[in-house]
Amino acid sequence: MNYRINRxxxxxxxxTLVALPWLExxxxxxxxxxxxxxxxxxxxxASGVAPLRTAFFYVPNGMHMQDWTPDTTGAGFELxxxxxPLEEYKSKINVLSGLTLNGARxxxxxxxxxxxxxxxxxxxxxxxxTAGAGIYNGPSIDQLLAEHMGSATRLPxxxxxxxxxxxxxxxxxxxxxxxxxxxxxxxxxxxxxxxFDPGSLFDRLFGSxxxxxxxxxxxxxxxxxxxxxxxxxxxxxxxxxxxGSTDRNKLDEYLYSIREVESRLLGTDKLDxxxxxxxxxxxxxxxxRAWSEHMKLLADVMALAFQTDSTRIMSFMFAxxxxxxxxxxxxxxxxxxxxxxxxxxxxxxxxxSQINQFHMGLFKYFLDKLNAVPEGESTLLDNxxxxxxxxxxxxxxxxxxxxxxxxxxxxxxxxxxxxxLEFERETPLxxxxxxxxxxxxxxxxxxxxxxxxxxQVLRSHAAK
Length: 464
Description:
This protein is of the alpha/beta class. The chain contains 12 helices and 17 strands.
């Protein structure tokens, strides 16, 4: 007999909850009762239709636009050097040119472009200039999406980054560090802090709803060097018996990927400030020494979060806005922010382009993870809409018009792909966000400075 299991079925153990990836058994056959073993739940699953997932990736200090913007529009465009790492995904990409983040401009408030760019990127708002109390910005698109659809998943949203979020301090010409270190805002006065520790993120993903029990289980696992899978082994065996061969293979691959990520977390090379080859740059303890390895571990866990439908909404910051970290992994010793003010110096421009391309290569690592997960006749990447970009175009000029914005994935066929779309200059970036909100079924009437929607990005519009 062919069994059907609920989309929200999970394997449970002491302080542990392992949600399942999409399986063929979630779309047909007789429903497998949760009974005394498998834990089910409510949510979209009986239909087998993949939900819309969204992720927003932010890079600081702008982009070397000459090596970003395609020379032609439409489907025949060629990828410039910064986008070259994504050549194999060209048919899944949209480059959106001409979009503007007006809220990041001074508008009478003087300097502070970096703080405004980070704060405004997902909100479209013009943050209040203050270095202390009274911060005021606006709700961000990811949190508007979470408000609308976050209840369908165990975690309404995930906020992730390579650096911690600040809670105070003056980081940019009288603007609070809160602005430059947070792109997600639940309300105009409530930023949502990022998680930068891969281990912490993993525990959130696979911990139970009982926070105390989850912490105890996590400590016990680390003490005994056990996997989360050791606590759900029996339930996994029960489920395995009721699955077809394709689903059994998929489940085995998924459980293997969890164990692989755990193994890498346990073997993480921690920061050792006594070693002389470590760049003199503030980095949180408890994360991998190598910046690229840190990014990859976070990407692994984020991919698992989407794969298990633990959340459908994420945001990620490669670094806090205005970051002056160096990139010695690719031979660049000077700070990112410093060389972004290149003054048309060719060597500095080349270095900025290299940093941009380095980020893109690591972003591809995340895309590879999603693209390797089948969901019905599509992949996890196909069923996701990922927005990648910055609140600054040319870092030397602090230009907030004609931003570097790209999307990857069609959001389950909702959005057109494989295009370079050029919009009329000064078109609000938030008009694109309104289009996403509309496709998600949100009733939001506006976000930031939005004036409408961009139907050109929709597959339904292109088909007309």
